[in-house]
Design brief:
heterodimer, A: 352 residues, alpha+beta, Rossmann fold, OB fold (Dihydrolipoamide Acetyltransferase, E2P), 20 strands, B: 294 residues, mainly alpha, MetI-like fold, 14 helices, globular
């Protein structure tokens, strides 16, 4: 096991720069999740770490050793692919043992390692089966097993759960997390699913257009988003964004009509965006900020999402599941000021 | 009970009545399709049936177009099989077809894989150059091949017969297209697992394109087994003849011994049948997708 350090990493394809000076340090034994929309550069970063793409500039260090010019096999990493990439013509045993082909360990030792990994993943009884005889979840376990058997310094996971159905994804999420707790290895995990990122990561790296937007613990990126992108990307439904202007005395006049005493120092006259998560916005609670008619209701059982029409579009709030307001009913939505976020309207950066 | 019986009978009789007039176009289409397929089948089987029929005829009956010989005989088979030259030709054809097939499958897949999975300058140009050779007819190539064989001293040798077919543009194209179906994830996973590029090609990629390899093997084997023009030109001695060249030499200048040619041809189809039976199961069984998302 080892740490991973990425310094000023740049990647260009032809003349297009897709990664712009990425810097990141992953501690030994840490579980770091890269998350972001399609094309944000998260998979490219992972492939650069794996050695499957050539670094344009910058450096990648694994366990204190610069690996830029090393072949993937010499980097002491193992990777689990989105499509599993387990060889269909080989049995589970051969697939798991494939990474040990170049190992100089004696055959009985290799066998012992294969069986120990299979046991850890609950695949012992399937060792002599071919991948075509396995379910999606079992195939994913084989792919993880093939990575584990080599005992690498760093595990790389490239959206490994995206092909599984929702139930299996939740189950595998838990299994990977348990595995990490048991093995304690350094893991870099790429996903576009923010729920996966929040539930599994020690730290989350949020990317957009080849830039890192924020690095932090799940709690940090949720409660203290660095900008409007992070604020809207993390959390479902997305954070409500209400344009406004700071007036004297630190109040914010919202374009939706309300005015709010924010209680924090903000430069007067500044154009801002007020961010409030739907889970913090309720009818008839806290400082009333928005008034409007309920356009749509989405019952979730214990609570109901309500879409309230404003001059800036629909605002989402959470109402009680048993007695939600009716469609067409005028509601006043409010939130506690400590749950609100203020962003600069021009740059999108967090102000308070 | 009677009412229940009625309801049971009624719908089915209605269906029967309705199915009559509403179906004719579909049935007509089906009948036409079957007729076409039947005609196609007859066209395919006719030459084979004619070959076997002729091989069972006496020389005087060969030019009668009857399928069933008046006096069937195995005399032609005895004559051909007792002729020592036939075994030489058979052996020559086997050696040439097997070596050419093995080499062609090996080199075509190696080049096809390289062109498909590696990014290097001029890759597309190389592929186009290989493909463009498909447009040159064999008849045009025969003269340079002959001159080359003469200069290298390959005339009337196995090597001389085999060298043009050891690597084919068609095979390279076929294999490149099939390697496109092998996901890059497999190759990259193997790279991370520590295999070198040749090992990846042999251990990972080749088993995944087994159906294509089998198809290519059948094409190449058949092509070389039935090759006529080039072996005829490059060989001088009767001992170096391949089966098709040897069979054409039956008879004399005045007459062609069709019954013997057909007998030899009938016997020579046996290896092609065996090759097809061996490889066809690989063609049917596609395995590439089994290791991917399910």
């Amino acid at each position: 096991m080892a740490n991973l350090v990425i310094r000023d990493l740049v990647k260009t394809y032809d003349k297009t720069e897709v990664l712009h000076s990425i810097n990141l340090e992953v501690e030994d034994g840490e579980f770091v999740v890269f998350v972001g929309p399609s094309g944000c550069g998260k998979s490219t970063t992972l492939r650069l770490v794996a050695g499957l793409e050539e670094v344009t500039s910058g450096s990648i260090e694994i366990a204190g050793r610069v690996v830029n010019n090393l072949e993937p096999k010499d980097r002491d990493i193992a990777m689990v692919f989105q499509n599993y990439a387990i060889y269909p013509h080989m049995t589970v045993r051969k697939n798991i043992g494939f990474g040990l082909r170049s190992s100089k360990a004696p055959k009985p030792e290799k066998e012992r390692r294969i069986e120990s990994v299979a046991e850890l993943l609950g695949m012992t009884e399937y060792l002599d089966r071919k991948p075509s005889q396995l379910s999606g979840g079992q195939r994913q376990r084989v792919a993880i097993g093939r990575a584990m058997v080599r005992d690498p310094a760093v595990f790389l996971f490239d959206e490994p759960l995206s092909n599984l159905d929702a139930q299996l994804r939740t189950q595998m999420r838990l299994e990977i997390k348990k595995l990490h707790q048991r093995v304690g290895s350094t893991i870099v995990f790429v996903t576009h699913d923010q729920v996966e990122a929040m539930t599994m990561a020690d730290r989350i790296v949020i990317m957009k257009d080849g830039h890192i937007q924020q690095v932090g613990t799940p709690s940090e990126v949720y409660h203290q988003p660095a900008n409007t992108f992070v604020a809207q990307f993390i959390g479902a439904p997305s954070m409500n964004m209400l344009p406004g202007r700071v007036t004297d005395g630190g109040r914010i006049d919202l374009s939706t009509g309300g005015s709010l005493g924010f209680g924090r120092d903000l430069p007067e006259g500044r154009e801002v965006i007020l961010g409030i998560r739907p889970e913090d916005l309720h009818p008839g609670q806290g400082s009333a900020v928005i008034e409007g008619a309920v356009n749509v209701r989405e019952p979730l059982g214990h609570e109901t999402l309500i879409y309230v029409g404003t001059s800036s579009g629909d605002v989402i709030a959470k109402a009680d599941g048993r007695t939600p307001p009716a469609v067409g009913e005028i509601v006043r939505l409010g939130a506690a000021t400590e749950t609100m976020h203020v962003f600069d309207a021009q740059t999108g950066e967090a102000l308070a | 009970m009677a009412a229940i019986d009625d309801t049971r009978i009624k719908p089915s009789s209605e269906v029967l009545l309705k199915s009559g007039p509403s179906r004719p176009p579909r049935n007509m289409g089906q009948v036409l399709r079957f007729l076409l397929l039947f005609a196609g089948g007859i066209l395919m089987v006719m030459p084979i049936a004619f070959m076997i029929s002729t091989s069972l005829k006496w020389p005087h009956e060969v030019y009668n177009l009857n399928f069933i010989p008046e006096e069937p005989t195995l005399e032609n088979y005895t004559y051909v099989l007792e002729d020592g030259r036939f075994y030489w030709w058979f052996l020559n054809s086997i050696i040439i077809a097997v070596i050419t097939t093995v080499c062609s499958v090996f080199f075509d897949s190696l080049v096809g894989y390289t062109l498909c999975k590696f990014r290097f300058p001029g890759r597309y140009l190389v592929f186009i150059a290989i493909l463009s050779t498909l447009m040159i007819p064999t008849e045009m190539l025969v003269i340079p091949w002959y001159l080359m064989s003469q200069q290298f001293g390959w005339l009337d040798t196995y090597w001389g017969i085999m060298f043009p077919g050891l690597m084919t543009a068609f095979g390279t194209f076929l294999m490149k297209q099939f390697f496109e179906t092998v996901p890059d994830d497999f190759i990259e996973a193997a790279r991370i697992d520590g295999l070198n590029e040749l090992q990846i090609w042999w251990t990972v990629a080749m088993p995944l394109v087994r159906p294509a390899l089998a198809a290519l093997a059948i094409f190449v084997f058949l092509g070389n087994w039935t090759a006529f023009i080039w072996p005829l030109i490059v060989t001088n001695s009767v001992e170096m003849y391949t089966l098709p060249v040897g069979l054409s030499s039956f008879g004399d200048e005045a007459d062609v011994a069709w019954e013997l040619i057909m007998t030899g041809a009938a016997i020579s189809t046996i290896p092609t049948l065996i090759v097809f039976l061996i490889f066809q199961r690989f063609i049917i069984r596609g395995v590439v997708m089994a290791g991917l998302k399910g």
